[in-house]
Transcription initiation factor IIE subunit beta
Amino acid sequence: MDQLRKERELFMKKAFALPVVEKRKQQDDNNDKNNDTSSSAKRKRFESSSASSRDFFPTKSSVPLHNFSILTKIVNSMKDRYLNGDSEALTFDELLDETNQLDLSPRQKQWLLTEALPDNPRININDNGKYSYKPIFNIRDRKSLIRLLEKYDSRGLGAISYEDIKESLPNADRIIKFLSEKNQLIVITRPVDKKKILFINNLSLSFNVDEEFQKAWRSIAVEGMDETKIEEYLKNHGISSMQDMNIRKTIPIQKRKDNKKRKSNFRKLNNHLDGLLEDYSDKQS
């Protein structure tokens, strides 16, 4: 019995001497939590310091959204004045009075004077420091509109957006309607974005087309088809399409240079050894 008791005591001592893994895991978890809390605290301190620096040194990214609404109100007011026939330049205080924004803070006024108004593409500043609306196109009547469309047509620049004309020409809707009824310009609605574009109607390029050809042309629907599908359609109906001919450029053949070994003239190069050199070519054979 005593021997059994001793063996039990030895077994219990060994069991108590073994390390407990669960406690280590808990300790590791606690350490990770402590590290996370410390890192989050450091991150908060860094964000707070960076935020304070941004407030102290204001940048374009830190401009409040309310400031842009102030700028939008000024630009829209100047555009409306221009489209109504009033193109007189105004001072900064007159701009604020025109838009009922005299209660702006000094910081907002400074932002308008130094960044917003000078950098805006629709605002023009003259030599006296007065502000006026700068349209996309410098057109005032239907004659200038016709000249602009003719310029785009002659230079192959394509169409002009209807919205750009409306923001540049006073009474644009009435003038465009009048010119389209006179068959002097063409208004097309793009199927992609449903926006209107303007073309000049070049009457010198007009010609009569047979009605049968027009019907045959309109009977073929090519919407949603690319060039490869159109080419396959033509091939299936026995019609050959024009293709680009890859012209190969002839590369001139370069003549090989004869790599002739230069014979070394020992007598010319070694004049100072005359009488000392001997020829052993006969002895080698």
